[in-house]
Amino acid sequence: MPGKHFQLEYGKKVRIESIDPNETGALHDREEAEPNIERLSERLEALQNILYAEKKQSVLFVIQGMDCSGKDGVVKRALGGLHPQGFQVSSFKAPTEEEAAHDFLWRAHKVVPAKGMIGAFIRSYYEDVLITRVHNWISDSEAKKRFKHINRFEKLLESSGVKIVKIFLHISKDFQLAKLRNRLTDPTKRWKFDKNDLVERESWDEYQKAYEDVFKQCSSASAPWYVVPANHRWYRDWAVLQIAVEALESMSLAYPESDPELDQLLDQL
Amino acid sequence: MPGKHFQLEYGKKVRIESIDPNETGALHDREEAEPNIERLSERLEALQNILYAEKKQSVLFVIQGMDCSGKDGVVKRALGGLHPQGFQVSSFKAPTEEEAAHDFLWRAHKVVPAKGMIGAFIRSYYEDVLITRVHNWISDSEAKKRFKHINRFEKLLESSGVKIVKIFLHISKDFQLAKLRNRLTDPTKRWKFDKNDLVERESWDEYQKAYEDVFKQCSSASAPWYVVPANHRWYRDWAVLQIAVEALESMSLAYPESDPELDQLLDQL
């Protein structure tokens, strides 16, 4: 199944509910997925090497999703094979005082991946049109303005060679509950539990609506949104790797032209 | 073989020449090393999870070595199993104009790993007492001053909970030549070749001397130098993992105290 399967048509209204978070495509279980995941992971590493050598373009994965959708996990399980020197992860939490004193794109702009680099945003500037809307911290007209700012910001990045890949990890509300329970009972995960997650959970439907608006207002052919079913972690990992590999393959990456002078050097060595 | 095997006695003069870059300890080949590498890697990931959860301490790997000693490779092969969200790699190249307009520790200070994080410096502020000395850009008395600045800087970091692990990847001059040849002939590696590496290679002995001075002047019980034989990459990876695991094990890491209120929450979920 190609990555395009998960890509939303841009500018169209999508109902998240209509997408099955339990989907596993043509794959039946983790065992069947493993060799595919391994193959894609190796391919992605090879492409990263060319991207890094070329130093003309970069890749930005924007990873969004409800609490427990597996945003941290996907960075480790699907993208963890990338060379750490060329891979930079940024987590966006509540803004600091300094961040809040700037426009909402300022802190994201600072950590956009440089040429040759791959970046992953765990949450992103999209939170500024998600949590803020769900809690009515901003008006609808302010949200509309922000959609435009985001679209122009992404155009700027694209014009500088940044390939933007926006991924929404799609889970069900029941699945979230099971994961929250698991966090409370597993001593190696309990530290991740945040009482506030229960508060946000109450606004589940409002979040889905806010996301649907984002998908409609902030998609383009060059920077589309992908909705990845994530109730099955192994399928999530396979799908994200598939999308990632296709994204890098579309960039016409090439090793830099070789300096013929170097051949003479080789003879002297 | 414990990581301590690679640790230099602090304050003592060491002759790098006396250490065999071909050493493989009790291991005979890559095949024998693999299961050990895997076991150590899993252990390191588990320790990283506690470090990240605890958020009270951090770890800084300072990775130094001659060109082709495998500084980039070790970050991928030995430390690549770390969760990318909690692992941050910084490469130090020739200073930018802004960096050069500050003291030599300024740019390093900015990227010191925050509490909960693991950082790796590929090259570091130690270059300011290595390449600079080899080319006589600084005097011996300036170098002595810098040693003191470095020692005080490392004390500051330690006082804030940073565990500093300094690793010198030790290769032979012949091995470097073979690797340089390989870079020139392998089309996926040719982009890494820098003609300047040949110039630096001519100062091999001066570099070894400058390193020996660093080891003598900038070691302490809490921030020692480790010399890792690196002609065999699999041994290098095993040794660095062994050192890393022991470093984290020495930090008395613990998950944060659990909030008993959460148990009541669980009943309500």
Structure, described:
Two copies of one chain form a homodimer. The termini of chain A are far apart. The first copy, chain A, has one domain: Rossmann fold, CATH 3.40.50.300. Helix content of chain A is 46%, strand content 12%. Chain A is built from eleven helices and five strands, in the order H-E-H-E-H-H-E-H-H-E-H-H-H-E-H-H. Chain A is of the alpha/beta class and 269 residues long. The longest helix of chain A has 25 residues, at 30-54. A five-stranded parallel β-sheet of chain A has the order 2-3-1-4-5, sandwiched between helices. The interface between A and B is large, with 40 and 40 residues. Chains A, B: It comes from Paenibacillus alginolyticus. Chains A, B: Residues 29-252 form the Polyphosphate kinase-2-related domain. Chains A, B: Residues 30-57 form a coiled coil. Chains A, B: Keywords: Coiled coil, Kinase, Transferase. Chains A, B: This is Polyphosphate kinase 2 family protein.
